[in-house]
Structures are given as C-alpha cells and as structure tokens.
Amino acid sequence: AVNAVPRQRRPGLPRTVLWAGRLEPEKRPLVFVDALARLGERREIGDWRAVICGDGSLEARCREQIRDLGLEGRVVMTSRLSHPELLASMREASLFVLTSHGFDNQGMVVVEALAAGLPIVYCDPRLEEGLTPRNAELVAPDARAIGDGMAKVLSSESRRRAMGEASR
Fold it and tell me: What gap in Å lies between CA 139 and CA 146, rounded to an integer?
C-alpha cells in the first residue's frame, strides 16, 4: 500500500510537469516531448518546467528532440531515480503525465502520483482504477491532445488544487 505523501512544493518553483518511466517506445517519451513543445506555445500557462525521470534506449533521442524543439531551458532529464527520490520529485510536481497507450496495466507510478496528490493527464482509457474526471484528464493519445490536456490543468490553479485533493 502507498500512503498519502504530503506536498512539499518549494516557493518560487515554476509549475512542474513530471513524467516517469522507462525511456522505451512503449512508454512513448518522445510523444511527451512533442506535447511539451505544444505546451510551450500556450502563453496562458505562464512559467513551467518539465522533469523526465528514467533511462532507457530512447534517452539520446529524447535529449536530441528536446534540443531540436528548443526546450533545453524548460525540460530536465534525470536518470532513473531511487524510489525516495521519485517520491520527492512527485511532492514538488504540479502535474503527472502518463503517455503509455495500449501497453500498461495500472502501474505503480500512477498509484504513487495519486498518493502524492497530483492531478494526472493520461491517454489510455483502460487505466481506470483510481482515475476519474475528478482527479485525471483523459485525452487522446496524440501529442496535440496531451499538450492541450496539460494546458487545461496547468492554466487553472483551482482546478489543479481540486484534482490534487481528489487524488489524495
């Protein structure tokens, strides 16, 4: 069982979008990076950053895509984090995004994001356990829809807060 994790967001930290998983095709990290580029086009969101936690065969391609899309100042890639480090990242995040589609069952990372009180954007309707319209935004699996879903959640502090409470 995962216990609720108290939020510990540092003052002055921009809104943070968190993605965590293996950097492998089935997890679709490149789609996430594309979605971040679309998020960068949305001025109503204000200051934001993204953290990609994980390692795998697509690490070099992710770094290249981040550079090619001009996201180097906004996107931080970490290697695989220890469990306590991942939970610490979740406590500081504003939003968790899951881009897997047609692959995952209900992964532990979703349970951890819920326990951390994070709103979630996801694109696989089969991942229903614990995810409802009250705490998660279900979007189509393409980068545009994922970016729009992130923008919808990030642009409203009250919506983010309500979704986070529903996750807890």
Answer: 6
